[in-house]
Amino acid sequence: MRYIFIQAVSIQGELLFFAGSPCNNRLRPVFTLNIKYKNILNWLIVFLQKISSLEISNRKAYHEYFFEGKYIAGLVLAGTEIKSLRAGKASFNDSYCYFDKGELYVKSLHIAEYQFGTYNNHQPMQERKLLLNKRELRKLEAKTKEKGYSIIPLKIFLTEKGFFKMEIGLG
To answer: Long-range pairs for 101-106 at CB < 8 Å and ≥24 separation?
Structure first.
């Protein structure tokens, strides 16, 4: 039976954790924790929240450009690239997006090689394809053909489903 965390209650100097299964509504006491370890528990909760909301941002772009619109695009990545991104090892130095045959790519995005990767490791500076709807791609391509517009990657973040997405800005 899988347990889903439901509630934590403080009773006489101890934290009592109750959990229940999704198929029935009964709560069962799972374990207790002495109050003196409460700070460790709070630290663990904050740490897990930071891991689940992984975000790498391009702070320099916000200072150099004014963005007219922002879009969320999917990234086509290899397995070792995902592991490096989860470790937070990416750099936006001089990265930009361009169109090639109607498809959008990001260039000069540095994702460090995975430390424990084998001969299957990825190239750190390779071009990566961005996934958008056709309508959005056509709109962006028309805007970039105008003078002075470019597409800049703003941040990479992890979704709740475990996919990495990139926020790009038209500026």
So the answer is: 102/137, 102/141, 103/129, 103/137, 104/73, 104/129, 104/130, 104/132, 104/137, 104/140, 104/151, 105/129, 105/130, 106/75, 106/130, 106/153, 106/166, 106/168
3-state helix, strand, coil in the chain (%, to 5): 25, 40, 35
- Cα gap 122→26, rounded to integer Å: 48
Q: CA 36 to CA 156: how far, in whole Å?
A: 38
> What are the beta bridge partners of residue 20?
4
27/128 Cα distance (integer angstroms): 47
Tokens matching residue 137: 């791609």
Using the predicted structure, report yes or no on whether residue 5 has a pLDDT greater than 50.
no
pTM tops 0.85: no
